[in-house]
Amino acid sequence: QSGHPDMQSETAMADASMKIAHIIESLDAGGAERVLLDIIRLRPSVTAEHEIICLAGEGALAAEARGAGIRVTALGKRPGFDAGLLWRLCRELVRMRADLLHLHLFTGGLWGRLASWLTDIPCVLGVQNVDDWIDGWRLAAERLLAPLPECTVGVTRASLELRKPWGLPEKRAEVIPNGSSRAPNPRSRSTIRQAWGCGSGDFVVGALGRGVPQKNPSLFLQVAQSVKNGSLKFVWMGEGLALEPLKGTKVLLAGHQKDPMAALSACDALVSTSTREGFSLALLEALRSGIPVLA
After folding, report:
1. Is residue 249 a contact partner of residue 280, using CB atoms and an 8 Å limit?
2. For the chain, what is the radius of gyration of the CA atoms?
3. How many helices (H) and strands (E) does the chain have?
4. What's residue 91's pLDDT?
5. pLDDT (tens digit, 9 = 90+) per residue, 30-60?
6. For the purposes of burial, counting CB atoms within 10 Å of the CB of 235, is it exposed (0-12), middle (13-18) or buried (19 or more)?
7. Which residue stretches of the chain are H helix?
8. How far apart are CA 2 and CA 11, in angstroms?
9. In Å, how far are 95, 231, 232, 236, 287 from 228, measured between CA atoms?
């Protein structure tokens, strides 16, 4: 982000121990959440103090964040409209004396921009998806808040083009594609496959992602059920309520993977059944591991 003209002053401030608050709904084990941790951990040359504020619960990656010395605070957002959430968020920002807000995904972007407006703390919005699902009051809120961030960073040009009719200033928009810092890890392939109940002669078809409707796990199940070849094994790596219909089926639910690259190495192919993606980290890491991808 420091290459963007509007961000040069923020980078200079970061060298003077800038305090940055990263606002996200939770640290569930998803691509955007993993990228957030990488952004913090892979910038050792920048002297800055980072905190992560989870608007809802902490999520599976919170322990990993704390292990890296990052403070994580959960505000316990209730389902639907939580009237007290904005006050709790602003209180946290005042407590930590934040100099900059880094906002992630729709929920973090919505509440974070409101808090930025109330506290007069500048913000940067990260757009990880092509959010063509936004309508109704959400669209009205986006139109109102679009001009507020100092910079809006999208992982693809399409993710930003969608927002221009909503009032996104083109001079404050920047594309920074996702990247992966993780190297392929094939050493645990046989151990992981054995734990999954897959033999050396089996062909393992994997899916990596949170169990949310956007990932469309029901389609992955349909594919698995349509295959009659017993040597093809189907494995979903991740957690979430949308995976409940897959329990007790041909699809093995492998749960949260602390080392996604090692889990990918145990697969022979990766399938993405998502209805929409921005710049899928799972597909990027599968390709980096030399695993064929079907999306």
Report:
1. no
2. 20
3. 11, 12
4. 97
5. 888 988 998 888 766 567 899 999 999 999 9
6. buried
7. 8-14, 31-41, 62-67, 85-96, 105-119, 136-145, 157-161, 189-195, 217-226, 260-265, 281-288
8. 6
9. 59, 9, 8, 18, 27
Q: Which token pair is 123?
A: 């913000």
Measured in whole angstroms, how far is the alpha carbon of residue 110 from the centre of its chain?
Answer: 16
Cβ pair 30, 37 in contact under 8 A: no
The C-alpha torsion from 121 through 159 and 210 to 274, rounded to 10°, is 170
pLDDT value of position 12: 44
**Looking at the chain, how many residues does it have?**
295
Residue 46's pLDDT is what? 66
What is each CA distance from 144 to 89, 132, 153, in whole angstroms?
A: 20, 17, 18
Q: How far apart are CA 157 and CA 35, in angstroms?
A: 18
230, with CB counted inside 10 A (0-12, 13-18, 19+), is: exposed
Calculate ∠ Cα 262-264-266, nearest 5°.
80
pLDDT for 44 = 61
Q: Give the residue with greater pLDDT, 182 vs 161.
A: 161
User: Using CA atoms, how far apart are residues 25 and 134, in angstroms rounded to an integer?
Assistant: 17
pLDDT reading at 238 higher than 60: yes
* 271 contacts 220 by C-beta, under 8 angstroms: yes
Q: Which one, of 289, 272, 68, lies nearest residue 192 by Cα? A: 289
- Residue 119: closest CA among 159, 91, 145: 91
What percent of the chain stands above pLDDT 90? Answer: 71
